[in-house]
Amino acid sequence: MTTSPDRVRTRFPGISTRTWEHPADRTALVTLRSLAGFDTILRTLSGLLQERQHRLLYLATAVRVDERQFRSLHQLRQDCVEILDAKTTPEMFVLQDPRLNAFTIGMDRPFIVLTTGLIDLMDTEELRFVIGHELGHALSGHAVYRTMLMHLLQLSANIGWMPVGGWALRAIVAALMEWSRKSELSGDRAGLLCGQDVDASVRVHMKTAGGTWIKEMNHGAFLEQADDYERSGDLRDGVLKLLNLELQSHPFSVLRAAELRRWIQSGEYGRIVGGDYPRRDQDKHARIGDEIKEAARTYKQNFDQSEDPLIRTVRNLGRDVGSAVNTVGQEVGDAVSKIGKRFNDWRTGGDSENS
Fold first, then answer.
1. DSSP 168-198
2. Interatomic CA distance for residues 108 and 88, integer angstroms
């Protein structure tokens, strides 16, 4: 693995995490961060959830990345830290595990874990994207909620047999998983900003989906799968898509690549690289109402443009209902007008029209 920079990448001094956070993800984060005493609650949870035990576990069972161990990964992490102008550098561990995985956990001191299965599969630029993705999680505070979700999932498995409490807990877990999926889209944007290599960002998802035979895969054909997934099938398929996604903490690889493509095509990525992005010193002025409006706008835009059979059916039903309401409203209005005219004719002794 080469560790020398292949080109100069744009750096983003003072960049705010709001730059790469998906609108739905950002709304939840701004709301949580604004709650009085929330930091105190998190610190309390950190003690209850034995964060120190987690870190000690990886200190004992994995390899800590630094200038002496996995130096190439250390340099990639340093590049990402400098590009995103991070104030701190999170610890990173390499864990012997053939499964493909990377995650960021912890509350007070988030740390990144990469499995050997992932390292063996990815090339240098793909690893830069992955490390940037995880750094984005750490800087956005995602590790806090990811750690909470991890423990809630364990709790849910233990008390899921309880008919009332179990369903309530499942509802909370489902909401957190929906946030978790959106946070992965945020992480992908951070990864792209670190690597600034669109092809590498797509290859990561191609390899996640199809393994090592990247020479047998095609960038354009892979993205076409997302289009086919979006518009294929009937109403039953739309429902099945929701059921397949319900308990997933991550969006599907093909759909993540397509979402990244949409972000690039929107022009947002180009504006950020050009220097037009929110700064950290303005974070305190971020308004929850504005974030909610932006999230609603994004959801509406995706809803209006979606070719998913279920969403298309709901959208068409909404138009049909709206049309019916307009028709009924017009008929009611005509009827009221006629009644009013007849009442006026009767009061004045005039002749009313036959109807």
1. HHHHHHHHHHHHHHHHHHHHHHHHHHHH--H
2. 12
Tell me what the mean pLDDT of segment 9-26 comes to.
90
- Provide the total of helices (H) and of strands (E) in the chain, helices listed first: 15, 4
Could you identify the residue written with the tokens 């493909």?
Answer: 100
User: Taking a C-beta distance cutoff of 8 angstroms, is the pair 80, 132 a contact?
Assistant: yes
- Residue 300: pLDDT band by 50, 70, 90 thresholds? low
Cα(43)–Cα(45) distance, rounded to whole angstroms?
5
Catalytic residue chosen out of the listed positions 21, 51, 134, 291: 134
Mean pLDDT confidence for 183-201? 95
Our answer to whether residue 291 is catalytic in this structure is: no
3-class SS of residue 116: helix
Q: Which token pair is 301?
A: 């835009």
Q: Which residues contact 112 (CB under 8 A, 6 or more apart)?
A: 77, 90, 91, 92, 93, 102, 103, 104, 131, 134, 135, 138
Structure tokens that stand for 25 in this block = 């993800």
Give the Å distances, CA to CA, from 342 to 42, 127, 203, 332, 333.
70, 79, 74, 15, 14
Report d(CA 75, CA 72) in Å as an integer: 5
Whether the pLDDT of residue 141 is over 60: the answer is yes
For residue 353, give both structure tokens: 């029209």
- What confidence tens digit (pLDDT) does each residue in 54-70 have? 788 999 999 999 999 99
